[in-house]
Design a protein that fits this description.
Translation Initiation Factor IF3, 51% strand
C-alpha cells in the first residue's frame, strides 16, 4: 500500500510540472524594450494608445481550479512579454482557468476466494480522475501616449 501511495504521488508530481508559458504575436512594430515594472495593466482602453501585439500567458498547473496566485503569475508573464516589445501597457482581454488535461489514477486489487461451503469472493479495483488547470491571461500589448 505504501508503494502504491508513492507511485500515485510521483505521477501527480510529474503531471503538475506543466510549465508556465507566454507568447506574443506582433501586430505593429515593436519599440525598444523597457522594464516590466514600467508596464501598467488596463481593464478598459485608455485614451490615445497604439496596439503592438496580442499576448497570451499561463501559470503552472494545478488540480481542479486555478488560484489568485496563478492569475497574478499569468498577468506578470503578460507584463514581461509586453516589456520585451516596448509596450508600456497591457489591455487585459481574458483572465481565468484553462483546462490542461486530467490526472487519472487506477488501482487494481487482487482476488480473494473461499469456496468451502458457500464461500466468499472479494475483488477490488478503484479509479478516478481530476482535472488539471492552468491560470491563463490574454491581452493586448499597447503603447500609451501620455498627454501633456
Amino acid at each position: 500500500m505504501i508503494r502504491l501511495r508513492s507511485t500515485i504521488l510521483c505521477l501527480l508530481a510529474a503531471s503538475l510540472t506543466c510549465c508556465a508559458s507566454s507568447s506574443s504575436r506582433l501586430i505593429a512594430p515593436a519599440r525598444p524594450p523597457i522594464s516590466p515594472a514600467e508596464v501598467r495593466i488596463y481593464h478598459a482602453p485608455p485614451p490615445h494608445y497604439q496596439e503592438i501585439a496580442v499576448l497570451d500567458a499561463t501559470s503552472g498547473a494545478r488540480l481542479f481550479h486555478g488560484t489568485a496566485e496563478g492569475e497574478a503569475e499569468a498577468i506578470e508573464r503578460l507584463k514581461i512579454e509586453a516589456a520585451k516589445l516596448g509596450a508600456n501597457g497591457v489591455l487585459l482581454t481574458l483572465v481565468g482557468d484553462r483546462p490542461s488535461g486530467t490526472l487519472g489514477v487506477g488501482v487494481g486489487g487482487g482476488d480473494v476466494s473461499f469456496h468451502h461451503h458457500g464461500g466468499t469472493e472479494v475483488a477490488g479495483a478503484a479509479s478516478g480522475s481530476a482535472p488539471i488547470v492552468q491560470n491563463g491571461a490574454a491581452g493586448i500589448a499597447i503603447y500609451v501616449f501620455h498627454q501633456p
